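queue> holo job accepted (flavin-adenine dinucleotide)
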Amino acid sequence: MDAGTSPERPSRRTINTRCCIVGGGPAGMMLGYLLGRAGVETLVLEKHADFFRDFRGDTVHPSTLQVMDELGLIDGFLKLPHQRLQKMDGKFGAASIRIADLSRLKVNYPFIAFMPQWDFLNFLRESGKRFSSLRVWMNAEATDLIWSDGAVVGVQAMTPDGPVEIRADLTIGCDGRHSIVRERARLEVEEIGAPMDVLWFRANKGGESESVFARVEAGKMMVTFDRGDYWQCAYVIAKGQYDAVKARGLDAFRDDVIGMAPILKSGISEVKTWDDVKLLTVAINRLKRWTRPGLLCIGDAAHAMSPVGGVGINLAIQDAVATANLLALPLRERRLRDADLATVQARRAWPTRMTQRAQVAIQNRFVAPVLAQRGADPPLPWPIALLQRWPWLQRIPARLIGIGVRPEHVHSPALPPVTGD
Ligand SMILES: Cc1cc2nc3c(=O)[nH]c(=O)nc-3n(C[C@H](O)[C@H](O)[C@H](O)COP(=O)(O)OP(=O)(O)OC[C@H]3O[C@@H](n4cnc5c(N)ncnc54)[C@H](O)[C@@H]3O)c2cc1C
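queue> job finished
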């Protein structure tokens, strides 16, 4: 697993592998780990030189923690710096509410671990080094697919050593919501849409803390994650309104934030320019078909998720686990058929649809009306009122967020690499 030129990276222009994974995000790194563990010769291409990039979500949910446990990685993983969240508390106008309580779940890890995504990905990369069948090339960008007789037989990639042609029995697009793989494969995207965008920023914590996680007022919503020495904040705006927010000026934005969350009064000074505010253009979409002969897309490349529930990473991991469960042995034994690829979509399309349906319902029935509300605080939606009246119901949102629909468990084998190919 190397960055830059190394003996591991051959200088010849064509290489062969059993599986080529495009993209080293949560889906690609987990799938690489699982296939490497199953002794399948696998090459992961990641276009960036490292994982230390912009914030892009760092919630590791109980379902993913369970997968780490099944892989024997949990102890090392939980030694990395992280924060834990069990109770999702909020302010709805003047009312204090509890949205979900993960401590009510009967699972091994009843909490969300907040960990920078780069720490998670580095941990997977380091852990995967023990598998000789797995290689991860950093700084390697897939630029096109290679076709033969209507099937994908690999990718063209640009590396610091020049262009490389990677021939593979199977190519898997894990290259995120702007996937070049799905675009070059001409896989049709079904856009579902979202009424909001999100502005992400950090605020210093100082010595103060509080357990409020979500805040809702007329026309405004914000989520604050306690990240130890800072707050990671998500400020929700109506779709396409970023320019209007900017036009009002940074002071007005800061005042809105402090009005909602007085605890950020000193810490928000860390937001000095609009460069400190990152816009997430929220999209919900999914591929109609996740496969072509020789090709499969998973994770955000197959379905971009709304940030509602913070489930994108975890769904990507679940896709990776299901893919390895279904394909590791056929790949290893060189008996992979196109019908096998379709079984991955058959297994994962339903949880994707269900999760997106829930996100759309929350966006349309709750987020959009709140953002449109002017004057008085919006009324407490009846499902949230019920959760306050009968707290045991808080296990339902906890389960949907923490475990999700159709959780996957690791069934792919741990095997030595295949020799003599
Ligand atoms: C600002 C922001 C906040 C978010 N917050 C959360 C959150 O709190 N919780 C949550 O669960 N989800 C969150 N998400 C969503 C989450 O990050 C994604 O759902 C998740 O990372 C998807 O994983 P993936 O592996 O499918 O794709 P990605 O994480 O997008 O990974 C794709 C990888 O492919 C690489 N790549 C792209 N093109 C190429 C190419 N041509 N060649 C080689 N490599 C390539 C990219 O560099 C990247 O590393 C957030 C996203 C954003 C942008």
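queue> The pocket of flavin-adenine dinucleotide is lined by residues 22-28, 45-48, 55-57, 59, 141-142, 174-176, 180, 200, 278, 280, 299-301, 305, 307, 310-314, 316 (CB under 6 Å).
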